Here is the input.
Amino acid sequence: MRKILFVVSGPSGVGKGTLVKGIVDSDPTIALSVSYTTRPPRKGERHGVEYFFVSREEFVQLEEENGFLEYDEHFGNLYGTPRKYVFDHMKRSSVILEIDVVGGLKVKEEVRKAGVPVILIMIVPPTLDSLEERILHRGAETPEQLRSRRERVNFELEKSDVYDYVIVNDDFDTALSQLKSIIETEQNKE
Ligand code: 5GP
Here is the structure.
């Protein structure tokens, strides 16, 4: 069976986190990549589970040592995909990684250089309206925030043609079984 890095991307609010959780909960052979962050843990978050929580100095040091496949800053905190963690786990099994489209493309480039097979999977909403409805239900956003989010979603969706697979998350169970079958098919390819 091939060991593959599966990168799952898609606009925020599309439900990619729940789909990835559905995969790792039902298939213990697939490892979930755990990112590093400089943001402090929220209540209930554990070091090494949700994230590896590190200081800014530790993060920068690791970055200088080429320790990340990609990293980015969100809301003043740094987040990165650890190169060693991903490659160590891939000695034993496939790894699944949930990340935004920009990060996904960077990871693909880095991982390919190392000769490791990587499959990019994009999760999209059935319609843009349905995504906005979900986000509006989540909580209050200013019109300005909504507009910039809309631009971001369009940017991410435009990149879908460089992704290997696109899954429409209309019905959760259907989307999960499509994701499972992509993983199975790719792992079983010669
Ligand atoms: P949160 O602090 O709410 O857990 O995450 C904030 C943002 O950081 C989210 O948009 C999440 O997708 C992003 N993020 C989490 N881990 C990584 C990572 O390893 N790399 C990048 N580029 N973004 C990440």
Notes: The chain has a mean pLDDT of 91. The radius of gyration is 17 Å. The pocket of guanosine-5'-monophosphate is lined by residues 35, 39, 70-72, 74, 79-81, 99-100, 103 (CB under 6 Å). Strands lie at 5-9, 31-32, 35-37, 51-53, 68-74, 77-82, 95-98, 118-124, 165-168.
